[in-house]
Structures
1.
Amino acid sequence: MLQSRGEQNPDFWKEIATALVDNKNNTETSRNGMTIKIFQGRPPHEPFFIAINNRDQVIIGPNKKTITIYVVGELEVLM
């Protein structure tokens, strides 16, 4: 979970992540015909990606392909 300066409220961090995707997205990709907006964070040696799935859940991970798979729900079936 994202955490900074002791802030642990999940709604707070969801708002931050959603704002990054909605306002600062720097890439789009598609999977199974679905367009996905993705925010890519830095530093370059440890990039992270943020996306929002169709259930309004925040998906954060180090790999863009894995993020897109989670967004379209394919990994939920496997887990």
Note: The longest strand covers residues 34-41.
2.
Amino acid sequence: MKLEKRDVDFFLIYWLKNDPELWAELHHLEIKLLADRLVSEVSYEELAKRHNTTPEMIGRLFEATLSKIERTISKGIARHLRVIDLKLRQRPDKPFSLIEFHLN
């Protein structure tokens, strides 16, 4: 199954804004970090400038947020969010427009 990145973005934004379990587990800043990184495709360097810190610290905060999602919400969701982040890190100059899902 192939999905446009904008379709995935729509789903992510809807989930980030409306999931009460997510809001119960994460702080507002962590949710904003997820939206900025995964939907807006903001680099760690840009996020670091915005928050007056280092890209490494942003990376650790992002990974800690994904670990919290993995522990409290869903391992599967955390895994898919990591895949999106990995694709963004691999090709920061050329964000992807198509995501392929292989269903078993």
Note: The helical segments are 5-18, 20-25, 28-39, 44-50, 55-72, 75-90.
